[in-house]
Amino acid sequence: MLSLNHRITIEEFKQIFFWEYAHRVLGRIIGLAFVLPLAYFIVRKRVPRSMFLPGLTRSQLGLPASAPAPNPLPLPTLTPYLGGLALLIGAQGALGWYMVKSGLAESLLTTPGAVPRVSQYRLAAHLGCALALYVGMLGGGIAVIRDWNWAHGKAKGIEALEKALQNNAVKVFKARVGVLGALVFLTALSGAFVAGLDAGLVYNEFPTMGGRLAPPRAELMNPAYAQKEDKSDLWWRNMLENPSTVQFNHRVLAVTTYLSTALVFAHSRRSAVRQLLPAQTKRLAALAFGLANIQVALGITTLLYLVPVPLAASHQAGSVALLTAVVALAASLRKPGRAARFWKLTTQRNQNTSFVKASQL
């Protein structure tokens, strides 16, 4: 049996163990902090399964008036959404265990010179699930707060936003924000493949790779990575398993994301759009562009300095910060949902009823 890392000291092991154990404990705390209150509210029937308000029309709820509406008109609730987030938390824990298991193969312990390493596929799945959960919680939380404030008259400019969203230029801007969000998510996901394959140690220069903008095609599509005789898996295996190709893909996605962020920022400053967008939206577009600049600088620095852990961790945190800004930017362009209109109309009816009763006294 080969002794792996036999020269490691107790203090060095404690340092590695601390981060791994803290990560697991924090993950469990997050799960309990979400699932236990959710279960309590469901048992106490504080999360309604459906909402009805007799006499509502589709136009009052911002729906097309062409189709007939049942009376009372049912409205969506947060129950399925919250349940989906709870399932994602469970899936995230299961993926974490599945990922760690891939690095505990017996062959890694018996092969001389082998380094324990988790599967880049499972690492990317674990990160992707975490990001999806984060986006779901953040986006849902912002939406609920905005809807509640609007329904109770605390949000300003929503009516102007609804009118602005009918403008074609604003529609194009909103679509570009959606594309930008997908690009940020995909770029962060590609970073998991870079980390899983140590692809950041292949070409430690920028903007070139070996003195060229891209490595030779023979290196990017290396036949050695194909496992089928007909080479039908050549393309996708190189895209996901070849460190040179994986780093090149991450570079291309990062540059594309940066340029897209710059485009969204520039679009928000165009006179045809600037006058229609809420001030918060313009501030968030500027914030996203600023964070994109920081993220690019962190990525290049991490590469040039051979991926030191503090810089690599900062680069990963930067991707989450940029994703946060883009999610908030997209949320700032969201119209009030049907539930918000329900809350507002219910509040108005209650106020009118109270006024009538007071007049009769």
How would you explain this protein's 3D organization?
The protein has 361 residues and is mainly α. The protein folds into two domains: 15-48 and 73-156; 166-334, no CATH class. The protein has helices at residues 10-43, 79-102, 106-110, 120-151, 158-164, 168-196, 217-220, 234-241, 243-268, 271-274, 279-304, 309-331, 338-360, and strands at 51-53, 73-75. The protein has a two-stranded antiparallel ribbon. α8 (234-241) packs across α9 and α9 (243-268) runs antiparallel to α11. The longest helix has 34 residues, at 10-43. The chain starts with 9 loop residues before the first helix and ends with a helix.
Task: Count the E strands.
Answer: 2
Count up the domains.
2
Helical proportion, percent range: 55-70%
> What gyration radius follows from the Cα positions, in whole Å?
26 Å
Oligomer: single chain
SS field, number of helical segments = 13
Q: How many angstroms does the end-to-end distance come to? A: 91 Å
